[in-house]
């Protein structure tokens, strides 16, 4: 159904998708592909490591394909390995000397635009970074300025920009304001061990959002043998060292599991996600508490996560500062709830794939809902909704939110379904499969 995931939505052909209505309670198991955030961190570390790494069950989506292409353009060898039936299973990643000239397409992937420049600063040659039209409004200046202060030659403070490296970077201490995105910190830390003097990052400004993602960065660095000190708030220190090879299985993407779990609430059914990790740094794990607050029964056991609901959805007052990427799906549930919701701490979502606060407000209201943008979030008062066209603004999570609404609201048509390929190209297959198991 989805067209090539590797193209700017502004230029490729687009197909709108009538969201299927659930004919009854879903009762099914959904196997969710690997985590975007883990796949792209592992790829970067593997390219900077001293030996080849193997990444099993990586996510294959637009964001991860772009990351792999970026690292290949800088010289890294990435080979596909298949299982006995010939299905793609892992990536074998052989680090090679990093070099330019190279042109990197960041697409609309925050991880590519924020994680690649510190790697490019370690390459020998000029690296030009570009991306989707919509990417030009996503902030990057704190990273380009930080790299300059660490000794790199960087031209430009928004896409497109260039990084001209000489094969090494002195490193040292850098102060920046990461209140717009945790990815500024993560990107610098991922490459920091390869800087001559290592790296200390100090955040100065309003609180950094999406903190679990920084914890994830620290965790994968430690998995690769790097010494990281994160004992003090807003300060991270990475010792200069080799980066060890990784041999890892990628956890399922818990944020991408969210719309399927939401379907249990909307239809009054049950959804099981196998392989849900018991200990994880993925921000998406926060969906368990949120669905519990909304009234679902949430059970994590050795088999995975099961969410069961009688179809009543309670409104919530919740701070989503750490788990911002869950907001679109939670907002969709809030619009179908039986009491108002206040989603707070998410002003930074204005810098995501689109201005998510404006987009959610506009699209929920277009269907007859009552959503209101707050300074730092959304107020959503449930109202009966009617079908209509749902704009997705190139944002995969807007597609997921629309699909959740469409389970109950007849006639929701989702703009440009291929948008979801940013992190989940198999979304429509998984969604329609889920609805075939509607307990009837
Ligand atoms: O580092 C990462 O993998 C991510 C960090 C977060 O970004 P922000 O800190 O910009 O919210 C998150 O929203 C994004 O989906 C993935
Ligand atoms: C904000 C997101 O993505 P990105 O990695 O492009 O920032 C997201 O996936 O919700």
Automatic annotation (TrEMBL):
Q: What is its EC number?
A: 2.5.1.19
Q: One MF term in GO for this entry?
A: 3-phosphoshikimate 1-carboxyvinyltransferase activity
UniProt xrefs under PROSITE patterns: EPSP_SYNTHASE_1, EPSP_SYNTHASE_2
Kindly state a single biological-process term from the GO annotations of this entry.
Answer: aromatic amino acid family biosynthetic process
Residues that hold 3-phosphoshikimate according to the record: 36-37, 41, 181-183, 210, 325, 352
Looking up Pfam families in the UniProt record yields: EPSP_synthase (PF00275)
Question: One cellular component GO annotation, for this chain's record?
Answer: cytoplasm
Query: Which residue intervals define the domain Enolpyruvate transferase in the entry?
Result: 24-429
Principal localisation: cytoplasm
Give the pathway listed in the UniProt entry for this protein. Metabolic intermediate biosynthesis; chorismate biosynthesis; chorismate from D-erythrose 4-phosphate and phosphoenolpyruvate: step 6/7
Q: Where in the cell is it found?
A: Cytoplasm
List the catalysed reactions.
3-phosphoshikimate + phosphoenolpyruvate = 5-O-(1-carboxyvinyl)-3-phosphoshikimate + phosphate
Residue positions annotated to bind phosphoenolpyruvate are: 36, 110, 138, 183, 356, 397, 422
The highest taxon in the source lineage is Bacteria
Leading EC class: transferase
Give the annotated active site: 325 (proton acceptor)
Instruction: Tell me which Gene3D superfamilies the record gives.
Output: Enolpyruvate transferase domain (3.65.10.10)
Region (Disordered) location: 1-27
Family label = Belongs to the EPSP synthase family.
State its role.
Catalyzes the transfer of the enolpyruvyl moiety of phosphoenolpyruvate (PEP) to the 5-hydroxyl of shikimate-3-phosphate (S3P) to produce enolpyruvyl shikimate-3-phosphate and inorganic phosphate.
Report what the protein is called.
Answer: 3-phosphoshikimate 1-carboxyvinyltransferase
User: Where does this protein come from, organism-wise?
Assistant: Leekyejoonella antrihumi
Query: Lineage of the native species?
Result: Bacteria, Bacillati, Actinomycetota, Actinomycetes, Micrococcales
Q: What gene name is given for the protein in this entry? A: aroA
